[in-house]
Amino acid sequence: MVVCIGVNKLKDVQSEKDLRRIPLKHVGIKDLRWPIELRDKTCGTQHSVARVMLAVDLPHDMRGTHMSRFVECLRTLGPVSLGEIEGILDKLKEHLQAEKAFMQLEFPYFITKAAPVSGMTAPMDMDCVYKAEKGEKFKLRITAVVPVQTLCPCSKEISDYGAHNQRAWAKIEIVAKEMVWLEELAQMADEAASAPVYGLLKRPDEKYVTEHAYENPRFVEDAVRELALLLDEDKRITWYHAEVESQESIHNHNAFAVVEKGEE
After folding, report:
1. pLDDT reported for residue 7
2. For residue 64, what is the domain's CATH number?
3. Using the 8-state DSSP alphabet, how is residue 22 labeled?
4. Planar angle of CA 86, 98, 129, nearest 5 degrees
């Protein structure tokens, strides 16, 4: 036998008064996997799976929040855009009676790249993050972690032949006043490095990429400065944090360099 209990008869424990007088900065859910639809510069839309964090602030006199309401609000998320993200945060503030709401989406994003000689295409993934909050104002940070290649100028200079090179990552985090495509951030990373990384290369492509990197040696310091110059040129971007990290092929450590500029 199934027993039905009216919702209005169940005690709302979360809404009990708390007497410890300690406000909480973040209360919510995290590590939730959720299907999302993203705007794709080439194809219009792209489907992915995000790891989601949703949170609100909690007043000092409220014992807890209603966790199910986070998922209820997330169900209304359409194709991810600035307006959609802000709309979800507004719903969280309203349904959870909060002053501030927070959202973070971590997801793989795929771009199709053509090999430099053969022209053969293949998808390549990069890790991306949308981190948003809404209090009185809406704030959004966009992050793209793009695989690239660096070749050591010192190694090239002191060696009779060859130079050590390796895969690296350009991590670009921005605040922008207008839409900036993830594809555009990937292009900046490719231009700043010794050479791009591709999903598919045939032998003529490998020859080209290897030689291109050799003719374009860059420390992580060089690469991150080149990246900063490209970010400075884009007037849509009001703040950025850029980092290039190289997984050194002959050293027992990674090398990295960071630059940050602008107002959030």
Report:
1. 53
2. 3.10.270.10
3. -
4. 40
pLDDT tens figures, 182-216: 999 999 999 999 999 999 999 999 999 999 999 99
Question: Residue 12: inside a domain, yes or no?
Answer: no
The H or E element spanning position 38 is: strand 24-40
Whether residue 209 is contained in a domain is answered as yes
> Residue 242 falls within a domain, yes or no?
yes
Beta bridge partners of 53: 104
Domain that holds residue 57: 23-262
Q: What is the pTM for the complete model shown? A: 0.89
Nearest to 103 by CA among 140, 53, 30: 53
Tokens linked to 63: 């014992």
Sequence-separated (6 or more) residues with CB below 8 Å from residue 26: 55, 56, 57, 102
48 alpha carbon, distance to own chain's centre: 13
The answer to whether 221 and 152 are in contact (CB under 8 A) is no
Neighbours of 123 (CB within 10 A): 11
If you count them, how many residues does the chain have?
A: 264
Strand ranges for 41-118 from DSSP E: 44-58, 101-114
Q: What is the mean pLDDT of residues 113-136?
A: 97
